[in-house]
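Intended use. Records like the one below are meant for learning the mapping from a protein sequence to its folded structure. Do not use them to infer anything beyond what is encoded.
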Amino acid sequence: MAQRSNIEIPARFIFRPFSARWITCLAEIVGWSEPPSSYEEFMYLPLESEDGTQIRFDSARSDDLVLLRLNVPSASGVGFDATGIYPLAPSYTVEVRPSDIPAEVLKPHENRRNTPEIAGRKLAVLVCPMPGFELTRWAPKPEGVEKNGWKMRNEFLNLHRETEALRLFLNHWGLWDRGLGYEVSFLGHPHGFAIQFPHLLWRRQEEYRCALTGRPHKWLSTTNPLFLSQIKEQPYFIVQKSYCEDAIRSTITIDHLSNAKFGICKLNDCRELYQRESRQKRLYCTEKHAHLASVRKNRAKNKKKKSNRRNDATRKS
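Structure written out for the chain above:
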């Protein structure tokens, strides 16, 4: 029997996301976080500030961390008033990395030494109240319903860069990643929440659009390999994901392995990502947009010709 150099392993991709409810919060920078003075202080979670708010220190901290204050309603709705607004929500102060703050709010060169006063700067963040959001012990269970990971990816990669659009996307598809999770207490009850910073997700959007339209080798040589889990029935192997980002990365890998081709529509007011169904390199996502681009190009040419005729007539006169 001849030796087989290539094998194909049938496997099924499963995307079962977590159920989540995201809200937009206006956060305010309190200042730079003071480094812990001892190992005991470093490990003590959470700490309470002078105004009674809870501070959760990140164990993977660096010298410069930023204190961020925000109001977070509980998952059970504590803190909401009759109108659904949450002015009664407790205030929490958490530590975040400077890179978590948008550059227009905190400049990349700013640090504790050259810019000691940064309090009062504000930014919008997305918050998901959920019990048990603690970094070391949190073990959520995904939904029982399987969803289309490629549909989710397509929606994210073509999402308009608006915080509200991102919030609606996450409310439909669940948790982006494990992210920044905090577990504190409010009125004697456990209270947890996760935070996402919109500008970081927009950065991921651009990265994944480039990865999908770029060379397969570049992506496959840098991303994590697919992890196959074994099951008892056919196809016997599955790739199962629950976080949106994990699912997006896996689907990009699968598409590159299957030699699928993608492009970005050249129409300036579209720029949507689309899959090319044939080997012919299309420049536009649809025939309609190709026709529209052609019409605009002809109009621009005609306009330039008319302008040149007027200029010639003016010079002759």
